[in-house]
Specification:
The complex is a heterodimer of chains A (351) and B (596). Helix content of chain A is 30%, strand content 20%. Chain A is an alpha/beta fold. In chain B, the strands form seven sheets. A five-stranded parallel sheet of chain B has the order 3-2-1-4-16, with helices on one face. The model of chain B has no long low-confidence stretch (mean pLDDT 94). Classes of the chains: A alpha/beta (351), B alpha/beta (596).
């Protein structure tokens, strides 16, 4: 970490977005994570994505659990709403907030411990309910705050800093999310913002449960030879299955990737995700193909990154529950609690 | 782009914009840090080594450093570098015993300096300190040259000149007072091993217009009149004064007039306000004291009545572009303006004059009336004669004259040792890490948002009463410290090591100015556009590394870097380090030379 806040000075020719903000306006307070932490890069990518989408900061709610990753919402989006909840309980707190006010943009930030261990059940139900949110896991394979024990996403055979192998089977959160019904599922790497930023943008554009597993090397406890989540290892084994551009009404941002097959997906809000298929024949709307692709790369010892699965037609929680379009928190007491006569009428109708 | 060669002495020097812009290359951030640390003696001595007259320059310098200051590029006012120099000079203790003394071993060589201004005094200081016998001749009774004669006392008190001229001569140079040199040939005949001409640009340009001769009694040449005031020969001027010219001399003339009885003082300038040669702060000070500046008026004639000046007639002009796109002043056709006045001060420029150099002396002159000299060695066509200051390249300023003096001293030293003065000694550079601990640096890297502090002035009513009352009071202790803290320490350089980099992006994310990018290599023009924030200032370098692991390069735009060191604080592998760059310029008698 550093002990000095980032000076207020900014580049005089910084780009401004549709709201007149620069990316600096989306930053948060000073990070207290280790110098070089992958999580800080992810925070910067989220800042960049929100800036590029011109999201109004005061309409974003950022929620997290406990852990290094869950500290990061403090270090970004300083003008947004935030809630640092209980360990592993971000999904239910976020679900509650979403039910109360469906108009906000929900960002859940979690880690591999927070999501794959203590919060696995919470994660599962948020995904299967289709809570309209962006769920980002900052996945470094170790418990950084307790000095580097393996987490549930550590690959079998990966070596700890002291040279001990991980013996248990890892949880693949991407495969799990698809299986559980998440409608936007991606994997990326903190060291590749060219891939990560468009993925986060696309996730914000998606309506429904959007999940991104971001491999984020722990520079202090998991960035050594033998680790499968080090900068070097991930770079060497990273296979990007596609690259995407998010085309909003305002501007086109071309990602600099080699031309391949193209797949355009129209999102709910009218923007388009343009996918450049780097892996021939992979159709992101095909669930079984996604599982096959993941398994194939896992077997080959590779890390498949990119947009893995997208179902733009999925139903989100509010649709399933058929709630009012007006957020519940805006409804008055008399509407929310119509009184004993209305209750008697309901009861009578059920007899 | 090629990877940057940071071992080249110019590379990091250029990043220290103020030092690069200073003709004498004063290590500005270093002395400002000393001031911030309360070490005014150290700050003064650093200045003294480079620019010889810190107290004088701290009041009068043209400050080429300040427009170059990086703070100015951050949409802010530059650090008050010049007035901080004065802080060090005013607050230092007695440093006399820390200055070099004339060595007891003399080398037997004699050097004569003509004129006792800043250039000659610099030559004398540098050469006397290494064993030369230097004699400085001047027609005035006191040394200092134009610093004493032309700069009004309310800007530069005599005590400051006395002290610093004294220090310059304390290395053993001898001042020969009231001794005008009338003939170069006679000087040459006296057997000097080398002669340095530092006699300035002593002739004030006149304005030939109808009525000039008839009204001569009330029309004065600016620099002569200022000298006359300085030496106490002139004590008064008419109530209504017109100053012709738009340079700093004009500003000194008008402000001096206010103190000698002028109530209605106007500066009338041919050009527009923005194009005036005077420094912005000098114009400000003059207007603050009540001087009116009138622009786009060209003097046509002096009006007079019975040998008495009654005013000046001006033609109204406007700035236009001619066919070739050059700026010209064209008459507007409006009726002429008559400005009534009792006295006129003509400050329309200075010229070089060398009536005492015989045409057959061997010193050749160019068409512009300036001596033909080598621009690096300052040697004239007569090998034993060197020039410097305004005498060499025409009117400039004190700090330029000092820089010339240093170079000429090196040349004279080489010449006297029978070496080729064109072989210039290289500067010595050093780059030392400032890391003191995990997150500790040996410099203050917290960036203050303070705006530039204004130097307090004496109130007008009091200031205008006496031509010797110094107008500027100088910074208070609190202001001086706060102003010193505004310095960005641009000499503490960001140094990058590609092999150590793991490309975690920490530096990219934390850099407040978006200076750092990791991108595919490309030709400079393309690269400048591909960075996180476009590098539009072409005068500032892009620091390009060797390829990192992914084959990309680190490209850092030096333009707006705050030198806050956050890249180095956030770097997990020490690929970034903050290292203090020092560049030491050789002086006459530098160590890397053969002995005499």
């Amino acid at each position: 970490m550093s002990y000095l806040a980032k000076p207020k000075f900014q580049h005089p020719s910084l780009e401004v977005n549709a709201l007149g903000f620069t990316h600096r306006d989306y930053e948060g307070s000073m990070s207290t994570l280790c110098a070089g932490c992958g999580h800080d890069s992810i925070s910067a990518a989220i800042v960049r994505a929100c800036f590029e989408l011109s999201l109004p900061p005061h309409r974003i709610a950022k929620l997290s659990g406990i852990g290094c990753s869950s500290k990061t919402p403090t270090y970004m989006l300083g003008q947004s709403h935030g809630f640092n909840s209980v360990h592993g309980r971000m999904p239910s707190v976020l679900t509650g907030a979403n039910l109360a006010n469906r108009d906000l943009i929900y960002l859940g930030v979690s880690g591999d411990g927070d999501t794959a261990s203590i919060g696995l059940g919470q994660f599962a139900h948020a995904m299967r309910r289709g809570v309209n949110m962006v769920y980002i896991v900052e996945n470094n394979g170790v418990y950084g705050l307790t000095k580097g024990q393996f987490s549930a996403t550590a690959d079998r055979g990966s070596k700890s800093k002291k040279g001990v192998d991980a013996t248990d089977e890892p949880i693949d959160l991407v495969a799990l999310a698809i299986q559980l019904g998440a409608s936007f599922v991606a994997r990326s790497f903190s060291g590749d913002k060219a891939q990560l930023v468009p993925l986060i943008k696309a996730a914000f554009e998606h309506r429904g449960a959007a999940f991104i597993d971001v491999i984020s090397p722990c520079v202090t406890f998991n960035n050594h030879a033998g680790s499968t989540k080090s900068f070097d290892y991930v770079r060497e084994h990273n296979i990007a299955v596609n690259a995407l551009d998010v085309i909003t009404g305002r501007s086109t941002i071309e990602v600099d990737y080699a031309e391949g097959d193209r797949q355009d997906v129209l999102m709910h809000d009218g923007s388009t995700i343009r996918l450049h298929k780097l892996e021939a024949g992979l159709d992101v709307s095909d669930r079984s193909a996604a599982f096959g692709m993941l398994e194939r790369h896992r077997f080959a010892g590779e890390i498949a990154t990119g947009l893995v699965y997208l179902n733009e037609g999925a139903r989100e929680l509010h649709e399933s529950l058929d709630t009012t379009h007006r957020p519940l928190n805006e409804l008055g007491q008399e509407v929310l609690c119509p009184g004993s006569k209305a209750l008697q009428a309901i009861n009578a109708s059920l007899r | 782009m090629q990877a940057t060669d940071i071992s080249h002495p110019d590379y990091f020097h250029k990043v220290v914009d103020c030092q690069w812009a200073c003709p004498a290359h004063t290590p500005v951030p270093e002395y400002i840090r000393r001031i911030a640390d309360g070490d005014n003696d150290g700050a003064y001595l650093i200045n003294w080594e480079s620019n010889v007259f810190p107290g004088i320059l701290g009041r009068t310098c043209d400050r080429p450093c300040e427009p170059a200051c990086r703070r100015g590029r951050l949409q802010e006012e530059p650090v008050a570098i010049c007035r901080l120099k004065r802080v060090a000079a005013d607050r230092k203790s007695d440093i006399a015993d820390r200055l070099p003394k004339a060595p007891s071993a003399r080398n037997g060589k004699r050097v004569g300096c003509i004129g006792a201004g800043p250039a000659s005094l610099t030559v004398a200081r540098d050469l006397a300190a290494i064993g030369y016998d230097v004699a400085v001749f001047d027609s005035d009774s006191q040394a200092g040259g134009m610093m004493r004669s032309q700069i009004p006392k309310f800007r530069l008190p005599d005590e400051v000149i006395d002290e610093e001229v004294g220090y310059a001569l304390s290395t053993g140079g001898a001042f020969v007072a009231s001794s005008r040199v009338e003939s170069l040939k006679a000087m040459l005949a006296e057997g000097f091993d080398a002669i340095f001409v530092g006699c300035g640009a002593p002739r004030g340009r006149d304005l030939d217009a109808p009525g000039r001769r008839e009204a001569a009694k009330n029309i004065h040449i600016g620099i002569d009149w200022l000298a006359s005031v300085s030496f106490g020969h002139t004590h008064s001027i008419g109530r209504r004064v017109v100053v012709l010219g738009g340079g700093n001399t004009a500003m000194d003339c008008c402000r001096t007039s206010l103190r000698l009885g002028g109530c209605d003082v106007k500066v009338v300038v041919r050009s527009g306000f923005a194009e005036m040669k005077a420094s912005a702060w000098e114009k400000e000070d003059a207007m603050h004291e009540g001087v009116a500046i009138l622009n786009f008026l060209v003097p046509k004639a002096f009006t007079h009545q019975r040998d008495r000046l009654t005013g000046v007639i001006f033609e109204k002009v406007t700035a236009e572009k001619d066919d070739r796109g050059r700026r010209i002043l064209a008459p507007t056709g409006e009726p002429d303006v008559h400005i009534e006045c009792d006295d006129v001060l003509v400050a329309v420029g200075q010229e070089n004059a060398f009536p005492w150099i015989e045409s057959d002396s061997g010193v050749a002159f160019g068409k512009n009336g300036l001596p033909s000299i080598d621009p690096v060695t300052f040697q004239s066509s007569l090998p034993s004669v060197f020039f410097g200051g305004d005498a060499a390249l025409g009117p400039k300023n004190i700090i330029t004259a000092v820089a010339h003096g240093h170079e000429a001293a090196i040349s004279i030293d080489a010449f006297c040792r029978g070496e080729d003065p064109r072989v210039r000694p290289a500067p010595m550079t050093n780059l030392v890490s400032q890391k003191m601990g995990l997150h500790e640096w040996s410099y203050d890297n917290a960036i203050t948002l303070d705006r530039r502090f204004a130097v307090p002035h004496v109130e007008n009513t009091k200031a205008l009463k006496n031509v010797k009352t110094e107008v500027e009071l100088g910074f208070t202790d609190e202001q001086a410290l706060a102003e010193a803290r505004r310095c960005l320490n641009c000499d503490v350089q960001t140094v990058f090591s590609a092999p150590a980099c793991i490309e975690c992006d920490a530096c990219v994310d934390i850099c407040p100015l978006d200076c750092i990018s990791f991108v595919p290599n490309a030709p400079e023009e393309e690269l400048r556009r591909s960075l996180n924030a476009p590098a539009l200032n072409l005068t500032q370098a892009i620091y390009v590394s060797e390829p990192v692991k992914t084959g990309r390069i680190m490209a850092k735009d030096e333009d707006l870097c705050l030198h806050c060191g956050l890249c180095a604080e956030r770097c997990p592998t020490g690929a970034w380090d903050m290292r203090k760059f020092t560049i030491e310029f050789p002086r006459a008698g530098h160590t890397c030379q053969s002995t005499l």
